[in-house]
Amino acid sequence: MLGGKNSILPFKGLGIDVFPITNLEAAKEQLAKMAEEYGVIFITERIVEQLEAEIAIYDNALTPAIIPIPSSSGTLGIGMARLHKNVEQAIGMAILQED
Q1: CATH number of the domain bearing residue 68
Q2: What are the pLDDT digits (tens) for 13-35?
Q3: How many domains does one find in the chain?
């Protein structure tokens, strides 16, 4: 899990590897390292928003699956938007309803 300390530290208690990020350059480097080792990477939406180009590299790869999650300050809707896009791409039409 990659993101701000306050957002991801609670997941450490569940046995999830957490990588708190303090700046954008460190986030880019950590994402590249994690992509080599992990099949699934959870990233807070605030970091996803800032690393769009770097994350796009993995969009068509089998691994890692990059899953945006809300940060401790709330959701930006990025995770749901990516889910809608992926479902539409996979089946050729939008089947998920908007709230």
Answers
A1: 3.40.50.10580
A2: 999 999 999 999 999 999 999 99
A3: 1
